[in-house]
Amino acid sequence: MRLLLIEDDDRIAGPLTEGLGRYGFTVDRARTGAAGLAGSGEAPDLVLLDLGLPDMDGLDVCRALRARSAIPIIMITARGEEADRVVGLELGADDYLAKPFGVRELVARIRAVTRRTGAQQALPPTLRAQTSEAGPGSVPTATAQKLGRLEIDRRTRQVRVQDREIALSPREFDLLAHLADDPGAVRSRQQIMDTVWDPHFFGPTKTLDAHVAALRRKLGDPAWIITVRGVGFRLTVPGAAGPAAEAP
Q: Based on the number of CB atoms within 10 Å of its own CB, is 151 exposed (0-12), middle (13-18) or buried (19 or more)?
């Protein structure tokens, strides 16, 4: 699926393009509204439109795009006021996502928009295969995974330890699932922040430590998540043989 990203900020466009590429999307970028409207090369299947452009208001770009095409449009912007959302949707945008947001959230929105507009066949094959099965906000991934006494069901977003269900916040679940994608492997703090939070998350990194502490407490044993000093964290099965690690 080919996306047109109309975004002037390199700090946002770069990580976003890279992250979407990992899901199989091809991303063309325009730095101004005029460049986005001019177009070049192959026509996109969906437009990701920032409102704060240097040459013109993104709402005007949305109006011009909709006047000539039914292409799906998702607005991505720091302008989260209700008035902007209402105007954008009235002008024909299909969805509106306020910054900061995660790549996985954006992918879920893209899938939802393509489902509503009947454009599912343009999705990358991996996402297309999941569209009819997954809910509106879900992210394609494996389902139940067992690691010792721990069971993670990504489809239902449920976690159990010794058959006892553990109540996790959405972010805690995403953090646990990310570490469980490769059990035992060290994930750097930056990798975790980029994936579980967002490549352009500007909040304090201590929020990661707080979520790790909460997960350890809820899982009932701090040895589930090991701190690797100066690097990040890794998920282990308590009591299982493995390399020596720093204390939590």
A: middle
pLDDT-wise least confident of 33-37, 128-132, 135-139, 149-153: 135-139
Q: What span, in angstroms and rounded, lies between the C-alpha atoms of 228 and 189? A: 10
Kindly state whether residue 107 falls inside one of the protein's structural domains.
yes
Residues 78 and 29 in one domain: yes
With 0.90 as the threshold, say if the pTM is over it: no
CA–CA distance, 58 with 32 (Å, rounded to integer):
9
Residue-range definition of the domain harbouring residue 12: 2-131
User: Which residue would you say has higher pLDDT here, 128 or 73?
Assistant: 73
